[in-house]
Amino acid sequence: MSAETAKDPRPSPARTRVLETAARLFYAEGVHSVGIDRIIAAAGVAKATFYHHFPSKDELVRAYIAEQGAAQRAMVGTLRADSPRETLAAVFAFMCEFGSGSGYRGCPFVNTAAEYPDPAHPVRQAIAEHRRWHRDLYRDLLAADGHADAERTADILLLVRDGLVVGFDLDDPATVRATVQETLTRVLTR
Amino acid sequence: MSAETAKDPRPSPARTRVLETAARLFYAEGVHSVGIDRIIAAAGVAKATFYHHFPSKDELVRAYIAEQGAAQRAMVGTLRADSPRETLAAVFAFMCEFGSGSGYRGCPFVNTAAEYPDPAHPVRQAIAEHRRWHRDLYRDLLAADGHADAERTADILLLVRDGLVVGFDLDDPATVRATVQETLTRVLTR
DNA sequence: CTGAGACTAGACAGGTCTGTCTGGTAGCGT
DNA sequence: ACGCTACCAGACAGACCTGTCTAGTCTCAG
After folding, report:
1. In this complex, do A32 and B30 lie within 8 Å of one another by their Cβ atoms?
2. Using CB atoms, which residue from A29, A166, A175 is nearest to B110?
3. CA-to-C1' distance for B18 and C26, Å?
4. pLDDT grade, residue A117 (50/70/90)?
5. CA distances from B29 to A17, A126, A129, B104 (A)
6. What is the C-alpha to C-alpha distance for residues B88 and B155, in angstroms, rounded to an integer?
7. Tell me, what DSSP letter sits at residue A172?
8. Which one of A120, A138, A143, B154 has the lowest number of neighbouring Cβ atoms within 10 Å?
9. Cα(B17)–Cα(B135) distance, rounded to whole angstroms?
């Protein structure tokens, strides 16, 4: 009930295995295309154990989204550069590198949102929460860099990020990489 | 195999009803969440009739994507403004207006791509084709306007478009609208 | 030793999925 | 009158879906 989204409820090995397996399959194939049976088979876990840790599939999806968000936050924490400006560049460079990888399948948040139309759904709210964090990260970095219009530019960077994750999934990575670079120089110059 | 994507194979009323119903339900709820039974019930069509016109659900999805593309191309054709520059502005203004509507649920191409991971799948190829048209539209308009770097700027506009369709689905429309406006002035100034 | 909790294996219910098949009706060109 | 095609209604097969349940194993704290 409490808002302890950061801590895992229980670090059970079976639960962890389920969550990792689900993340892999959900990301690679989509949420609705992967059934519980396949997840528990791949994770080597009994069905009763799964339903012991997760009350429903939707809750597993929610946990998957929350875990992806936590992983991204942790990742950003590791690549603090010398200046806010360089940190910002490092964030986008990382996203480009990740997007160019062979296993890239788009942004888990955007992809999952496409499968959950109702904005009031818990899964969608978890996605919205992560988006807010993302925008705030940009705003804080811009403000720390002394940017004149940090608020509006943060919105722009979120838009660029969304275009980035879609483009790397659907278009030629090398082109998108160059496009992102050029876009950043154009929108950040001021 | 030919490139006659514009013409419908057969203008049968039942087929049209199925395609329109499928488009509405697919867009509102996602492809995998809507079954054939619901589509034919809502369209008032017998199952045999459906499979008479469409060999499989995947082919229906492909037709849905192709039809969305044709509709977008037709829509752009109607809003030719006085100059290429104004036409470009009108295209983005239209997307913003559409994205601000209450029934907006994101871009059908992006959303459907999220449910079809395999890039070699016919549905994904239909999506890629539409994206190419979109990029070429931008490039041609920019070139006709005498833009110095039409190719690279077209890539940027496609990226902005992707950010736009995602943002209108997941964030506050008024904010996204302003963000798009500001982004365009920044990336087009040169 | 006892009892609680995490775990495994797998049957089961009730529903939905895609796709096929049967059988019958209505219009239409020849 | 004939055959062709489009269409309707709905049963059916076989697979898969989520979620529940039974029954038993193992570990560990007290």
Report:
1. yes
2. A166
3. 20
4. very high
5. 30, 19, 22, 11
6. 14
7. -
8. A120
9. 31
Cβ atoms of residues B15 and B23 within 8 Å: no
- Which residues neighbour B157 within 8 Å (Cβ) at sequence distance 6 or greater? B88, B135, B138, B142, B187
CA B137 → C1' C17, Å?
A: 40
Length A32 CA → C14 C1' (Å) = 20
pLDDT for B7 beyond 60: no
Is a pLDDT exceeding 60 seen at residue B9? no
| Mean pLDDT over each residue of chain A, to the nearest integer | 93
pLDDT category, A6, cuts 50, 70, 90?
Answer: very low
Residue B10 has pLDDT above 90, yes or no: no
Q: Does residue B53 carry a pLDDT above 90?
A: yes
The rounded distance, in Å, linking the Cα atoms of A51 and A66 is 18
Q: To the nearest 10°, report the CA torsion of B69, B73, B76, B80.
A: 170
Name the burial class of residue A80, with classes exposed (0-12), middle (13-18) and buried (19+) by CB atoms within 10 angstroms of its CB: exposed
**pLDDT tier, B4 (very low <50, low <70, confident <90, very high otherwise):** very low
Q: Is the CB of B37 under 7 A from strand C?
A: yes
Give the C-alpha separation, B31 to B53, whole Å.
Answer: 18
Residues from A in contact with B at Cβ < 8 Å: 28-30, 32-33, 105-106, 110-115, 117, 127-128, 131, 152, 155-156, 158-164, 166-167, 169-171, 175-176, 178-180, 182-183, 186-187, 189-190
**Which nucleotide, over all strands, has the C1' atom closest to the CA of B52?**
D6
B16 CA to D8 C1' distance (Å) = 17
Whether the predicted pLDDT of A123 surpasses 70: yes
- Residues of A in Cβ contact (< 8 Å) with B105: 117
